[in-house]
Design goal:
By secondary structure, this protein is of the alpha/beta class. Helix content is 23%, strand content 29%. Strands 1, 2, 3, 4, 5, 6 and 19 form a 7-stranded mixed β-sheet that branches. A 5-stranded parallel β-sheet has the order 8-15-9-10-11, with helices on one face. A 3-stranded antiparallel β-sheet has the order 12-13-14, with no helix packed on it. Strand 12 and strand 13 form a beta hairpin. It comes from Rhizobium sophoriradicis.
């Protein structure tokens, strides 16, 4: 069977894109590998109408709603290859043969790489956090930290005091410049230059961190921006162009969410350096709408 659109990825962006196309009565296949980036988090926050719900529950409900549309096919599986052949795209699904479509939407997400510090990975998504807008309220009032992992970490440290007393851990690698120092001091941020070597406490809770000089610093939560990489090779296989994002490469898209490859659209964390469920869902809506319009406006015949 040939579809009009194949959506690769069933998280917030992919589901939102598929919903627009379902309501436009297009034949759509959504393929989901079942490994969403937010699987480590207990709850999504700041998402209007979904605040406090588990990401898995939101996605399950989204799939249930999509399944009510007869023109949508939902399929579990991992897309392992894709190529353009004439005016169609051929998509290979692991253990499940190939499918064809006139358009593709990539909502393939990213893979996080955390600093190699003992106890950090065990707490990811619980007391080791990436976004204060997503999780800051839940840890507010505690002792908070920002772990420097890139040159923009000081900017994050300037924001965090709105949620609690903040310490900026430079890891002896990312020393603030004079302008950053002035902002940090104005915000009451403590600066710790001895690197964190271990996180302490009954995981996934965090009680303190051990520093390289042997001191123990009490801490309730710590924010870190992990480095990111594409979670899927499909965009690269198709020849999509990439931009250097703040934390890793992102798929280049125009305002209409179309990539550098005509007929391929992208949305979500794979195509943006700003990561949140709400933004991913909104980008998915735009990708779905513009993908539909590209089908409508294609040359006759």
């Amino acid at each position: 069977m040939s579809y009009e659109v194949i959506v690769i990825g069933g998280n917030f962006a992919g589901l939102s894109a598929a919903m627009q196309l379902a309501r436009a009565r297009r034949r759509v296949l959504l393929v989901d590998a079942g490994m969403p980036r937010n699987r480590f988090s207990q709850a999504a926050h700041g998402f209007l109408g979904q605040d406090g719900r588990a990401p898995a529950a939101i996605m399950e409900e989204g799939k249930r709603q999509l399944s009510l549309y007869p023109n949508i096919t939902l399929r579990d599986g991992r897309v392992v290859h894709a190529q353009k052949q004439d005016d169609q795209f051929i998509v290979g699904i692991e253990g499940g043969g190939e499918e064809r479509a006139d358009r593709l939407i990539l909502a393939t997400g990213v893979r996080d790489t955390l600093p190699e510090i003992a106890g950090l990975g065990d707490r990811w998504g619980r007391s080791v956090l990436h976004c204060p807008y997503c999780h800051g309220y839940e840890v507010s009032g505690g002792e908070l930290g920002v772990l420097a992992n890139h040159p923009h970490s000081a900017h994050s440290a300037v924001m965090i005091p709105d949620w609690g007393a903040t310490t900026f851990f430079t890891q002896a690698r990312f020393e603030p410049d004079e302008e950053q120092l002035a902002k940090l001091r104005a915000r009451g941020v403590r600066i710790e230059r001895s690197p964190i070597v271990e996180l302490l406490g009954d995981s996934p809770k965090l009680e303190a961190v051990r520093l390289a000089d042997g001191r123990i610093a009490p801490l309730d939560a710590i924010f870190v921006a992990p480095k990111t990489a594409m979670a899927s090779p499909i965009a690269e296989q198709l020849g999509c162009a990439f931009d250097d994002g703040m934390f890793g490469p992102v798929i280049r898209t125009g305002e209409n969410k179309e990539t550098s490859v005509k007929g391929v659209f992208a949305a979500g964390d794979a195509a943006s350096s700003m990561h949140s469920g709400t933004l991913a869902s909104a980008a998915g809506v735009l990708a779905g709408v513009h993908c539909h319009q590209s089908l409508v406006m294609q040359p006759a015949g």
